[in-house]
Amino acid sequence: MYKFFLKPCLDWIIALMAVIILSPLLVVTAIAIKLDSTGPIFFLQDRLGRNGKIFKVYKFRSMTVTHIRNSNNRLLENDPRITKVGRFIRKTSIDELPQIINILKGDMSFIGPRPPVTYFPKRFEDYSEFEIQRFKVKPGISGLAQVRCREVHDWDINIPIDVEYVKNYSLTYDFKLFLISLLSFFRTNNIYRKNKL
Questions:
Q1: How many other CB atoms are there within 10 angstroms of residue 32's CB atom?
Q2: Mean pLDDT of the chain
Q3: Positive or negative: CA dihedral 46, 48, 54, 55
Q4: Cβ contacts of residue 85 below 8 Å, gap of 6+?
Q5: 195 CB contacts (<8 Å, ≥6 apart)?
Q6: Strand 54-60 relative to strand 42-48: parallel, antiparallel, unpaired?
Q7: What confidence score (pLDDT) does residue 191 get?
Q8: pLDDT on residue 71
Q9: Cα separation of 26 and 5, whole Å?
Q10: Residue 107 gets which letter from DSSP?
């Protein structure tokens, strides 16, 4: 019941409440982005969702419009392509907040595997039988891999953790991950760490 009915209902209700509560922050961030650099407020990118369905993920734009991030051009901490406002919203994860829109649209959940881009680390049809299990659930803003190793972009580490989540998630499990994600919202320590979750 939780996986097929309660979880999507809770996601939608919490997302609606989050939009209302966070609206001042969202508005201020949008204004800051427009004042800081030329370009749109949001950055949209194709991502792989449940069962490999492609959807557009919403994020606050943190880069100048003349630069495009791709798999072979990873952003560095002091990357000149990142705007002044972009540096702050990336450090505090505020750039991820527009994904609440994706939750309201039904593309994402609060907790689940992070949605990869369509071409990296590989195309959907190239994932192995084991790896493709991570796509059995909706992707999340945060997840087990993010709790264990925040901002460590190593798919060899993250994919097995994602599969572990898919096999074990429940209301209690998601609630724990949700709370930990909230508590670590402003944490910027990128060290891989093991825990019981």
A1: 19
A2: 88
A3: negative
A4: 29, 32, 33, 36, 37, 62
A5: 147, 148
A6: antiparallel
A7: 40
A8: 40
A9: 29
A10: S
Q: What 3-state class would DSSP assign to 189?
A: coil
Rounded CA gap, 63 and 7, in Å?
A: 33
- The domain limits of the chain are 2-183
Cα 163 from Cα 130, distance rounded (Å): 8
Q: Which two tokens stand for residue 162?
A: 């994602």
Residues 6+ apart with CB under 8 A from 116: 47, 48, 155
- 75 contacts: CB under 8 Å, gap ≥ 6: 63, 69, 81, 82
Asked whether 164 and 137 are in contact (CB, 8 A), the reply is no
What's the predicted TM-score (pTM) here?
0.85
The conformational region for residue 92 under phi > 0 = left, psi -120 to 50 = alpha, else beta, is alpha
H-run or E-run covering 45: strand 42-48
What is the structure's pLDDT at 146? Answer: 87
Q: Enumerate residue ranges in the chain where pLDDT < 50.
A: 70-72, 188-194
What pLDDT was estimated at residue 150? 67
